[in-house]
Specification:
Elements: H1 2-6, H2 8-34, H3 52-58, H4 61-94, H5 98-112, H6 115-128, H7 135-159, H8 163-171, H9 176-205, H10 208-213, H11 220-229, H12 234-263
Helix pairs in contact: 2-12, 3-12, 4-5, 4-7, 4-9, 5-7, 7-9, 8-9, 9-12
Domain ABC transmembrane type-1: 67-254
Pfam families: BPD_transp_1
Keywords: Cell membrane, Membrane, Plasmid, Transmembrane, Transmembrane helix, Transport
Length: 264
């Protein structure tokens, strides 16, 4: 009895953890289950099951176009945000004192600004510079939001880098450019890869900025939102389930590669 009383903080912590897991996975499980319902509406019990909704969604040209458009925007966002994020992280790492804290705060500001406020300000900005809504404007908005995550991950890795690696490269005759590409960049590889995965997932899931900056061609989140406006059906659940599966696979594979690269 005394041992049980002694361990109650640990038991309470475990209980809260498993309650959180249940809270997280129960809605997702219900969403996936409804995607197999053999009816054109959402209700319980499920009754007969079918995969016809999956076949219909996979053949949906609008859905496929939205997926390709989303992937294209996410790839462009990732490439641009990674280059800018690494450059800003290197710049912050070279600063000292208050300048470093100010630069870090400014670089991370887009990550803490509410999405609605960020989207409205970006819409005003592109209107001011006469940039039309559409692909370029969406990529601009996504890059602004994604860069801080690259900066944080790369800067964290950069601060753990032994200084004697750079000194050794310079003692062997390497200049700053060679040292960066042959020593610093390979060391930052796992953090850069993790930041790129963050950029991909953030861009593909960004609805608010896309809604304010997008044109007539919808991304996948906008397409799902438009379909929801006309009523919920298992078709919506199928789209969400496919997005969930792809996101989980990409995230788990990225975690596996990151762990392996760190061990090496």
């Amino acid at each position: 009895m005394r041992a049980l009383f002694h361990d109650w903080p640990g038991l309470a912590l475990k209980s809260f953890y498993w309650l959180f897991v249940l809270y997280l996975f129960l809605p997702l499980s219900l969403m996936v289950a409804v995607s197999f319902k053999d009816a054109s509406f959402i209700s319980f019990p499920l009754g007969n099951l079918t995969i016809d909704w999956y076949a219909k969604v996979i053949k949906d040209k609008q859905f496929l176009d939205a997926c390709l458009y989303t992937i294209m925007i996410a790839a462009a966002t990732t490439a641009i945000a990674t280059v800018i994020g690494v450059w800003i992280a290197m710049l912050i790492g070279s600063l000292r004192g208050a300048a470093q804290y100010v630069a870090f705060a400014v670089a991370c500001l887009p990550a803490v600004v509410p999405g609605m406020i960020s989207a409205i300000s970006l819409r005003i900005f592109i209107t001011t510079i006469d940039l039309p809504t559409g692909t370029v404007a969406i990529i601009l908005g996504h890059v602004v939001h994604a860069v801080p995550f690259v900066v944080v991950m790369v800067l964290t890795r950069l601060r753990s880098m032994p200084g004697n690696l750079v000194d050794a490269a310079r003692d062997l005759g390497a200049d700053s450019i060679v040292t960066f590409f042959r020593v610093t960049l390979p060391y930052l590889g796992p953090a850069i890869f993790g930041g790129m995965i963050f950029c991909l997932l953030l861009s593909s899931d960004d609805f608010v900025r896309t809604f304010f900056l997008g044109g007539y061609r919808p991304t996948l989140p906008m397409l799902i939102f438009a379909r929801v406006q006309s009523g919920m059906s298992p078709e919506i659940n199928v789209m969400a389930t496919l997005v969930l599966v792809v996101t989980a696979v990409v995230g788990l594979y990225a975690e596996y590669l990151t762990r392996r690269s760190r061990i090496r």
